Structure prediction request, 458 residues.
Amino acid sequence: MAEISVIIRTADQTRKAEVAMEDSSAAKDVIDGAVSNWTLPTDTDYSLVNTSNGKTITPSMTLADAGVKSGEVLEIQPVLVAG
Amino acid sequence: MSERYLRNNMIDWFDQSTIKNINAIVIGAGAIGNEVIKNLALMGIGNIQIYDLDTIEIHNLTKSVLFREEDVGQSKVDVAAKRARELDPNINVVAIHGDIFKELNLNDIKNSDIVFCCLDNFETRLRVNQMCLLTKKTMVNMSIDSRFASIEIFPYSDDEIVCYECNLPLSAYERISKRYSCGHLKKITYIEKKIPTTIMTSAISASIGVSLGLQKIAGKEDVNISSKKVFLDTRLGTSSLNHLTHNPDCPTCVTYSNKTHLISTTKKKVGDINDIRLDLAENLTIRLPETIITNLYCEKCSHKPEDFKIKSSRDYTDEIYNCPNCGEKSVKVEIKDELSMEEFILLGLHKKVFDIVPFFFVLSAGIIFCYYEEN
Prediction:
């Protein structure tokens, strides 16, 4: 377990913050934190993408498992459902 | 080759004769479905099957290129199929009006080349995902809101193990469960959240979705396409290409992995399960793809409907808890999605299971019995 500093942003790029967190944090924890701190709409679902390598981070995957390193940018994207 | 496709013949990345022979399934004839059907028809895709249960409403006209004001009230699939045939009379278009859970079976998917998923809810997307994974057919999933468009391609094969459900957030399951009471009975009072969309997001998602799909199944070059997502912001004009990651805990992947063994059967031959039972083991557990109601009775007055038949929970709403005899909310409902082989036979399901659920699997032996029309 180690602390890493990553940049979290929303897909519309209106919210962006540098955050220090344990690399044992799961993607769903990162999303929950962003939704809570930025008061993002709670009637929307979100997924997490590491923009440095373009890979999605599945909900229960930790940042360490996903190979996320300090300085990388994680984007919170809405999971769309309408068609 | 008809003169109609002269310019298409000049395109270097696909062969028009291959395009002509494609069997495509379009699930959902809403905003994205309209655009996908239009694209497929204009490209000259030879065979298109369209599934949807809705009828056209006036507010659909702002983002549905195939619908007109005089079509309001008609089924979406019938009108979409008619307009697609007008776009290209050389193609075969079949309209299937009804619930995907009832109308779409594995046989339809197995006989297709590609499935375009243009739905508006997680639940049905999950079902289509399972069916495509089982039959190893490429699925293109498109979804939108008023600003963003998401296009995902899942080229299912023996080697491709990333599925739609792998990256689905837990909150999506909570959203699905809100539509149902205990036991997967539809809540009659549930009001679905309306999500606004635009013709811009639906058109761009369908354009990219059809391009990715055709590249996969009709592309001249052998391009290695893995599961990926294109995510677009139509307001900023930005896009990103995301490589979808496999989730080892994904319920669909765990259940429908390559370890399972498909056995095709027909409605008439379901009784053969009896014989399979003898060949395997008697303590097999059968898990159904959706819950069924095996019994119901009133706990207060003991009333039991004389005409009760085992049915999928989807065929009932939560009104079933109200006793028609004494008027109390006291009906005990027995709901199951997992049965022992003994129970399965005792309830007579070995003779009629495919009249109740579209396909099922024997979890304990990793064997999936599928309802196919055998050729």
The mean pLDDT of chain A is 97.
